[in-house]
Design brief:
heterodimer; A: mainly beta; six-stranded mixed sheet; 11 strands; about 0% helix; B: mainly beta; seven-stranded mixed sheet
């Protein structure tokens, strides 16, 4: 069974601060996705990374896939209250595998 | 497009009761799946389907049944509810079965089993 460990589990920061969320595994993943979930709603996809070492940017969010494709990080620059939510990483064992392994999530609170 | 819809939004059952959680999508997606989300556990796959008439088990299938008679609908049946099935259930769909495909999630059904 592949496991994805997310850290930290909880994060409370002031508006304007930077933060990084980590997603680590001892297993190799063919791709990794990051989702954001707001209370009472389903997760919404932010990004998919597929190549080792890949970096993708989405406005103030920067996503990186580790060279060995075992880990990933999400960095938010100048966090805003609208960034508040639960961030989930999800990995796929193979390109044709539709079974995603989800991390337990990082609950982010950005205080105005 | 309504996307992925789920009904009901909330449900309370007594132990031993059965019920069906409804899921529908209007995006003509091939792949549909059911997850449960428990505090501190992330999302865990219950069952999935790669097309009408085809279903398979995920990580935690015990106590649940599914069927896929149409592309649009993918109901989840609880045969005899147990307190351990108290959870938030999410249905998701995607146009293909590759892990690269974005999964679109419904708003969830919050189920409590007493």
């Amino acid at each position: 069974t592949q496991l994805l460990e997310q850290s930290p589990q909880f994060l409370s920061i002031q508006e304007g601060e930077n933060l990084t969320v980590y997603c680590n595994s001892s297993s190799v993943f063919s791709s990794l996705q990051w989702y954001r979930q707001e209370p009472g709603e389903g997760p919404v996809l932010l990004v998919t990374v597929v190549t080792g070492g890949e970096v993708k940017k989405l406005k103030r969010l920067t996503f990186q896939f580790g060279d060995a494709r075992k880990d990933s990080s999400l960095h938010i620059t100048a966090a805003q209250p609208g960034d508040t939510g639960l961030y989930l990483c999800a990995g796929a064992a193979g390109a044709g595998s539709y079974q995603l392994t989800f991390g337990k999530g990082t609950k982010l609170s950005v205080i105005p | 497009n309504a996307g992925v819809t789920q009904t009901p939004k909330f449900q309370v059952l007594k132990t031993g009761q059965s019920m069906t959680l409804q899921c529908a999508q209007d995006m003509n997606h091939e792949y549909m799946s059911w997850y449960r989300q428990d505090p501190g556990m992330g999302l865990r796959l219950i069952h999935y389907s790669v097309g009408a008439g085809i279903t398979d088990q995920g990580e935690v299938p015990n106590g649940y049944n599914v069927s896929r008679s149409t592309t649009e609908d993918f109901p989840l049946r609880l045969l005899s509810a147990a307190p351990s099935q108290t959870s938030v259930y999410f249905c998701a769909s995607s146009w293909g079965s590759s892990s690269y495909n974005e999964q679109f999630f419904g708003p969830g059904t919050r189920l409590t089993v007493l």
